[in-house]
Amino acid sequence: MSEHFDWNTDSSVAIKPQAAIAICRTEDGAVLIRQEGQLYISEDQYIEVQPEHVLALCRKLLAEAGLHSYDIVHASRMVIVGRDGNEMMILEEDLAKLDRITEEARDEEGSKVFTRPARPAAKAPKDPGAAERQRRHRRANRDTATGPVTVSPQSVTSTDGP
């Protein structure tokens, strides 16, 4: 690099300066997006979004940023697969509990950010159909690898002595 470095024109600058952006909630429950002004706080820009429009705004932001491979899905549609292959789903009551904890933290502290609960949430109960799905999966893999296995009465021989 030369001694006459210019932050505005040098091609080595990877990220150009950008005004800071803050997101918080208003007293009436709307989401407030605030962008820092250049010189004075009176120059700050504000956008107020009603909660029912936040998902549409986020999806549009992703699309405009060219991040088409990302999507916003409800947590109840997510399936988490563990190392052992077991599938776990987030239960509705756990989501409701998380929302309630978030709101309580916001009310108590006046905070606009989520604070984690002091103790971890209880494990979700096992899915009653998981074992049967695993058996079907293993059976399908076994059948495709060696072909279907059938046992007929003629092929069974006795191992009892003569």
Key traits:
single chain; 162 residues; alpha+beta; three-stranded antiparallel β-sheet; two-stranded antiparallel ribbon; 3 helices; 5 strands; flat
Task: Describe the structure in your own words.
The chain has 162 residues and is α+β, with helices and mostly antiparallel strands. It has three helices and five strands. It has helices at residues 54-64, 92-109, 130-146, and strands spanning 21-25, 31-35, 45-49, 79-81, 87-89. The strands form two sheets. Strands 1-2-3 form a three-stranded antiparallel beta sheet, with no helix packed on it. The protein has a two-stranded antiparallel sheet with strand order 4-5. The relative contact order is 0.06.
Helix-strand sequence: EEEHEEHH
Query: Which regions contain 5 or more consecutive residues with pLDDT less than 50?
Result: 111-120
Helix share bin: 25-40%
User: Taking all residues together, what is the mean pLDDT?
Assistant: 75
Number of strands: 5
Q: What portion of residues belong to β-strands?
A: 5-15%
The biggest beta sheet, please?
3 strands, antiparallel
Distance linking N and C termini: 93 Å
- Structural class, from secondary structure content? alpha+beta
Across the major sheet, the strand order is 1-2-3
Shape: flat
Q: What's the gyration radius in Å?
A: 28 Å
Total count of helical runs of at least 4 residues: 3
Summarize the topology.
Elements: E1 21-25, E2 31-35, E3 45-49, H1 54-64, E4 79-81, E5 87-89, H2 92-109, H3 130-146
Antiparallel strand pairs: 1-2, 2-3, 4-5
